[in-house]
Specification:
The structure is a homodimer of 309-residue chains. Chain A is α/β, with parallel strands linked by helices and 309 residues long. Chain A has 2 domains: 9-162 and 207-308, Ribonuclease Z/Hydroxyacylglutathione hydrolase-like (Metallo-beta-lactamase, Chain A, 4-Layer Sandwich); 165-205, no CATH class. Helices cover 25% and strands 26% of the residues of chain A. Chain A has 10 helices and 18 strands. The longest helix of chain A is centred in the middle third of the chain and has 12 residues, at 101-112.
Amino acid sequence: MEKTPKTKFEVTVLGCGSATPTPRHNPSAQIVNIHDKLSLIDCGEGTQLQMRTCRQKFMALRNVFISHLHGDHCLGLVGLISSYGLLGRTMDFHVYAHAELQPLLEAQLKLFCHALDFEVVFHAVDPGSHALIYEDRSMEVWTLPLKHSMPCNGFLFKEKPALPHINREMTDAYGIPVCYLNNIKAGENWVMPDGRVIPNARLTKPAAAPRCYAYCSDTAYCPTLIPLIKGVDLLYHETTYDNSKEKKATVHGHSTAGQAGSIAKQAGVRRLMIGHYSASYDDASLLLRQAREVFPNTIAANEGLTVKV
Amino acid sequence: MEKTPKTKFEVTVLGCGSATPTPRHNPSAQIVNIHDKLSLIDCGEGTQLQMRTCRQKFMALRNVFISHLHGDHCLGLVGLISSYGLLGRTMDFHVYAHAELQPLLEAQLKLFCHALDFEVVFHAVDPGSHALIYEDRSMEVWTLPLKHSMPCNGFLFKEKPALPHINREMTDAYGIPVCYLNNIKAGENWVMPDGRVIPNARLTKPAAAPRCYAYCSDTAYCPTLIPLIKGVDLLYHETTYDNSKEKKATVHGHSTAGQAGSIAKQAGVRRLMIGHYSASYDDASLLLRQAREVFPNTIAANEGLTVKV
């Protein structure tokens, strides 16, 4: 069994249906939990309820990243913010989305969310560029330009490299005092009383490689995406249609299961999760089979599913 | 057992929670089915999904009547209209709501619902007056001024009186030809060949009395409502809180269970349905008990419940 890194990096699917919600699937929304900091990607209608149903920490959410301004990706936003107001939230809430949403969001907040005790901070995102839009001590979020029927971008969540682990056998052997170990962890060498320099690499073991998650929905087959998501640990790629509907997919700016598999394969990702299923499918089995024909390490998103990155 | 009238008049509860949705209750929404014509009252977030879950004819909806502009009563509206657009609706959709909603709704439709094949027709409602706002061959809808923390009104759905039934024994006895029976149904007398006039009342039996449904949410205790809902067959009255929270209820423009029962009793309604429960109650049993102490013929709303009026 693979050794699980200690720090958390997982994705919980709140909704993986496409435009028209059905009793089978909710519209798009996911929670990304990196080191217990929660971000929301997309916020279709009913997302706040899905967060509660899926037992996600509703109030702990810091940011929402909206891929594009189709209703099934953002109509749950005002309800979420409104509930935060009613529940007495005081922590600011950050919205990253296409600039066109801002005036409408503000008008809605004015009408539906009087006297909030927190700021809703809007960050305009340029869907056409691959840019760093968020950064904190443990993570970065980058935009991923996609090819859809309106300006649309995915998001790349990158864990920041952790500090190396101390090799206690070696630090003990060199008699390095405990009070100095943080400096070693931070990258310093050790200078012995006789002036000999012990290089940092001999005193530490590298931390687990930082992990990456790419969310790519909604998009037609988009090969320009491949270099941007090279080798990510988990790729969520939309598969609105099965392979027989490639033409329809292209016309509407969506992908088939085979195309999602092909992007995953060409980008050499570790694992693919498919989702954003058209309401015409009773279940995801056909889409999953077709994606696996191209990229075997594929799983199917479902409401409530949590995947470790 | 009471004889059920043949024509349909029933109410289906889609959501009966209050402001913050919980896994127990959806926000406010109800379907009123009068003679197989469907109207929606309020449209909280997730209403379109609830219509599907409750197997209501999603596309057949003609009108939505919005009581007031709190998010839990109208945030599902744009998603519903957006889905109609995607599903190729062509029948116009009528929205009855406070005028303040119109510019915001139009801005949202512009952004989220491009190129609809039907009109969304907005009808501004004055929440302060008791007025006829909708009428067709079989029903009328009247506003009911309520007392809430913002302009708010309920709705009174009145079935129009049906034509009387033909008394076949009498029409046969007088030798009235079948081709003339529709005129008798419409109220005409019958003139015998000898000039004798047979009054209409002798040839017909009165139809079942027209039925009425009153939806009253959200509101504080509001005695001015009583004469407007006198004797209705079914009253839906909000009971956000139990009797111990009367002060809190008044401050927030809501009612206790006892107050709802009192309004029902004073108005002499046939049956009371309570709902709009605060999220703080695990179930409605306490509220139901307190309402029944004042007005025994009370039922508790629940998602999916259909009540014959």
